[in-house]
Amino acid sequence: MNRAMFSGVAGMKSHQTKMDVIGNNIANVNTYGFKSQRAVFSDIYYQTLRSGSTGTANRGGVSPSTVGYGSTLAGTQTQMSQSSMQNTGFGLDVAITGEGFLQVMDADGNIFYTKAGMLDYDSNGYLTDINGNFVLGSATADGDPGSQKIRLTNVGAVPAQAASVTQSINGIEYTIKASNSDKAGNVSITMTSSEALPAGQDVVANISNTGAITLTFNAYSKFDDWNKLNDAINKAITEANNGVQHKGGTFTISASNPDVMSAANPLTGAQLIGGNFGVDLGSVTGMDDGVFGDAGMVVEKVSTDFAGSGNGTFSANYNDATSQWDITLTIGGVRYTGSLGKDTLSSSILLKAPDGSYVQVSNPGYDKFNSAYKTANPTGNNPPQAGDTWTNGNGTATPNFTPSTPSKDLGFGSYPFVLQGGTAGGAVTLDEMNVAIGTDGSVVVSNSEIGDVTVGRITLANFANPSALAAAGNNYFTASANSGEPQLAEPGQNGTGALKTSALEMSNVDLSAEFADMITTQRGFQANSRIITVSDTMLEELINLKR
């Protein structure tokens, strides 16, 4: 009876331990990277009541008779099966899609292994896990798999650079560059012109609260030297900055074709800013009252290829056969001709030269022209007849023509000049970088100045018997004598799984199986407790025999 009682006690202890394992599994049903365990029982030693014997010719063999002393916990087994992945949206979360463990190292140099890839980095730039331990791998982009710390700031220094911008306008490249290597040079410069600035004030600057600079050029000021232009601009910026030089230093404008502005080709402020990239049309002066007397014919415009220069003389000859006036404008020996007929409906007339260039004059109307002719020639024919000529058609007007020329506008006002790239240089700080982890474990740092740099690679550890790893808490395992030595490899190589970023491996606890085990464990515990109760009753009966 004592044996039965102690067997019940042993059974209760082993079932209690199994319930502890089940409780731990259920408690970690939402623990990332958790691997469930199971409790395995075995029977205990046996008391031999009778030894077995071998059969003979006269007697049969006898089997041994033994009585056991209950059950005990043979051990706990860790289930290393792959669980499902959960997308987290955090770029530094990683899940291993197969075999292998992340390596982490604590402050004492102890190395642990984990499936929980909740990564981060510390203030010194080292890649860590959520517990603040270092994530290990190769400290260089092309290093062998290892157990080294990975430092995100291992990207070298950014060289000092002055801010600049190059803008192509009308086929010419203009570059504005700051002199100081500093972020302060990363400004936007907008240029415009004004006719309201006083004479002698070539450029006025305005600096906004955001640091943007607006330069206003005097539309009438003339500029014939790039150095003088830059001096005027920087003087204006200094004045707008309360007499202190801009933190970006001085700003210099240069052109891929510097001859667009020179002593031989001076430009006004309006031409620096203007965006007329075609032709400046020729003009005419000295004919405010028009020509041909009261007819009031005036020049409206000239063609883009008009080359006439100097004084011009108008004349008109009446063509009786076509009932029209043939108008002729003579400039420097070149004749521009056209006609004014009684059926002409357009409001303008083109006087054309043999090369196709023209002068456009207003059409006063056939009747008004005839009336003006009669007034200017009272003794002439009425109506006009063949051969009638109006040779003094200018009246008091003395028209003077200038030719059409290619526009000199540079177009500085076409776009804002946004300077970029200015930096004082030095080491890249954590706030100036973005971190990404590749499926192959590569840790890539992105910076606007240096681009993408691979600072290291996460290394996975694989084991011959991963189920024999010892649980150490905090989602960690440690190597044991039965797990084998860690075999290091890049993710996706030598039997290890690749990394999945922005995801974590969930716990592999099966709640339905755990609840079923909980029921059977409870019943086992209950049954063992009944053994003790019944044994106690039997002992009581034995004691009562004495009565």
Automatic annotation (TrEMBL):
Residue span, Flagellar basal-body/hook protein C-terminal domain: 502-545
Family to which the UniProt record says this protein belongs: Belongs to the flagella basal body rod proteins family.
Alphabetical list of InterPro entries matching this protein: Flag_bb_rod_N (IPR001444), Flagellar_basal_body_rod_CS (IPR019776), Flagellar_FlgE/F/G (IPR020013), Flg_bb/hook_C_dom (IPR010930), FlgE/F/G-like (IPR037925), LlgE_F_G-like_D1 (IPR053967)
Main location per the UniProt record: other
Gene Ontology biological-process entries: bacterial-type flagellum-dependent swarming motility
Protein name: Flagellar hook protein FlgE
Described purpose of this protein according to its UniProt entry: A flexible structure which links the flagellar filament to the drive apparatus in the basal body.
Domain (Flagellar basal body rod protein N-terminal): residue spans on this chain: 8-35
Domain Flagellar hook protein FlgE/F/G-like D1: 95-154
GO cellular component terms, A-Z: bacterial-type flagellum basal body; bacterial-type flagellum hook; cytosol
Subcellular compartments: Bacterial flagellum basal body
Region (Disordered): 375-406
PANTHER family, alphabetized: FLAGELLAR HOOK PROTEIN FLGE (PTHR30435:SF1), FLAGELLAR PROTEIN (PTHR30435)
Alphabetical keyword list: Bacterial flagellum, Cell projection, Cilium, Flagellum
